[in-house]
Write a structure and sequence with these properties.
Strand content: 15-25%
Oligomer: single chain
Shape: globular
Largest sheet: 6 strands, mixed
Bound molecules: pyridoxal-5'-phosphate
Helix content: 25-40%
Number of strands: 10
Number of helices: 11
Distance between the termini: 32 Å
Length: about 300
Amino acid sequence: MYETLNLQLPSPVTQIHDSLLEQKKIKLFIKRDDQIHPHIQGNKWRKLKYNLIAARSKKFDTLLTFGGAFSNHIHATAAAGHYLNFKTIGIIRGEETLPLNPTLQDAINWGMELNYISRSQYREKSSAEFIEQLKHKHGNFFLIPEGGSSSYALKGCEEIIKELDEDYDYVCAACGTGATLAGIISGLNNKSKTLGFPILKAGTYIEQEVNNFLKKNNRTNLNNWKIEKNYHFGGYAKTTGELISFIIDFHEKHNIRLDPVYTAKMFYGLFDLIEKDYFKPETRIIAIHTGGLQGLRGFNLKLKQ
Ligand SMILES: *Cc1c(COP(=O)(O)O)cnc(C)c1O
């Protein structure tokens, strides 16, 4: 059903070379999920895939989902709806701000209907009562949870691992809800160690969430993973001058763009761990570039094309 999207799959794997990696004898690779599609990229494609297939096979013509005003998931869902002929409705957290930011402007241009709800209403968005109200207002729709993080997401994210044709000691990814990490852990089946880098200040919450996703999908006894909590940079979408310099530097050295919300925090953390001899010499690491590059536009950051 998605052949017309011309997705670049399997996404390419490239090796990163620099003096620190050479000095520490670490082999670092990147899985370029950011190259899957200009607008439906990274883990947002992985998470949407089986949601879209289910919506189509169950004959829904409308997708409804949730997100913040800069959400990569809202952006990807609106694009998918446009290319694959679904009507899309985005329930957005907070008040409308005009002019629209580039994320929501794209969503509108792709035909998404935006509805704004208060932050307190947003916290209740999964309640049966609120879903009933939405059905009353919008008619029948296929519901995709925030971030695309349904059970279908796990299956899609397992495919990140299935596409790899070499073995690695560690697989690294940024985490928000933890659904992508759970899919990676599930796909690896204890074969390699997974490291998650939460981009929120979240305490032990993220471990619980990852475990919940695994349990809901009957994936138990998967314990070869760890959360590295020290790289959230103050919380969701918070940045520092150091993080921004890191993004600029990384782009100059490797010609790979990172977004400040997710992938830059993971790579910063990963390089910090390498610097601190967290990994033994000859360790092979693959980091997943989970995309999110549309989000760069929300930051005042100029990278050469
Ligand atoms: C949404 C997103 C994540 C987080 O994914 P979760 O499954 O919610 O943990 C990571 N990286 C990027 C670029 C994202 O857009």
